[in-house]
Amino acid sequence: DVKVTQSSRYLVKRTGEKVFLECVQDMDHENMFWYRQDPGLGLRLIYFSYDVKMKEKGDIPEGYSVSREKKERFSLILESASTNQTSMYLCASSRGSRLTYTDTQYFGPGTRLTVL
Amino acid sequence: QKEVEQDPGPLSVPEGAIVSLNCTYSNSAFQYFMWYRQYSRKGPELLMYTYSSGNKEDGRFTAQVDKSSKYISLFIRDSQPSDSATYLCAMENQAGTALIFGKGTTLSVSS
User: Fold this and answer.
1) How far apart are CA A99 and CA A93, in angstroms?
2) Cβ of A108 and B43 within 8 Å?
3) B11 vs A69: CA distance, rounded Å
4) Fewer CB within 10 A of the end CB, N or C, for chain A?
5) A64-70 and A56-57 beta bridge pairing
6) Whether the Cβ atoms of residue B20 and residue B61 lie closer than 8 Å to each other
7) Cβ atoms B80, B19 nearer than 8 A
8) pLDDT at A2
9) How far apart are alpha carbons A113 and B39 in whole angstroms?
10) Mind listing the pLDDT tens digit of every residue in chain A (116 residues)?
11) Which regions of chain B does DSSP assign to beta strands (E)?
12) B91 CB-near residues (< 8 Å, 6+ apart)
C-alpha cells in the first residue's frame, strides 16, 4: 500500500526559529512535492524534486528551501520562520519521470504548523 | 483571470442527492484533469483522472470534461454522508511540470 509519511502532525514554533519538515515515501517514487494549503487560497506548490539532489521552485518558494539527499526523503526548511508561514504543509510523491511530473500524486497527512 | 476557478461552497445536500461539483479553467492547452478528495485532517487522495474531453465513470462518481467550454465537472450519485469532504479539481499545466489545483469545494451530506 502506498504510503507518504510526514514527521509531525502538529508543530508550534516561534518567529525566527529554523524549522524542518520531513517527508518520507516508501514507493520508490522519483518525484516529490511540498505544498502549503490555506483557506481561500487552496494548495500552492512550494518546491518539487524529480530526482535526488535536484529541486525546482514552485509558485511560492520565498522563505523556504528544500533538501533531497535520498530518494525516499524530501525535507522542507524554513530558515527563519515567520507568522505568515503558519499553514498546513502537505508533502506528495509521484512515480513520474523527468518528462512528466503529473502521474498520480500521493499525499501525506499534512503538518499543521503554527508560528507564534 | 486565475488559471483554475472553483467555487469553495460550502455545499450541503441530503443523503441520496445528486451532487455536481465544477471547475473552470483558462488555458485551452490543458489536457489532463483530476479530482482529489480530502477528508478533514487528511491529505488529498486521487478520486478520478481523465484525459481530454468526455466522461469517465467509476461507481457513483462521474467525471466530465468539456474542453470547448473549459469546464470540468464531478457528479456524485446517491450521495452518502461518507462523501462529506473537500473536493479539489486539478489539471496539469501546459509545460507538463506541475499540477494546478482549484481551491476546493467543501461538501456536506446529511443523513
Assistant:
1) 15
2) yes
3) 43
4) N
5) unpaired
6) no
7) no
8) 67
9) 19
10) 669 999 999 999 999 999 999 999 999 998 899 999 998 888 999 999 988 988 999 999 999 999 999 999 999 999 999 999 999 999 999 887 654 545 788 999 999 999 99
11) 4-6, 11-14, 19-25, 32-38, 45-51, 54-58, 61-66, 71-76, 85-92, 99-101, 105-110
12) B4, B25, B30, B32, B33, B34, B72, B99, B100
A99, A102, A107: residue with CB nearest B45: A107
> How many angstroms separate the CA atoms of A93 and A29, rounded?
6
Task: Extract the C-alpha cell encoding A41.
Answer: 487560497
Tell me which chain A residues have a C-beta less than 8 angstroms from the C-beta of B44.
43, 90, 107
Which residue, chain included where needed, has cell 446529511? B110
CB B72, CB B23: distance < 8 Å: yes
Which residue in B42, B49, B101 is closest to A43 by CB distance?
B101
Of A44, A47, A3, A15, residue with least CA distance to A115: A15
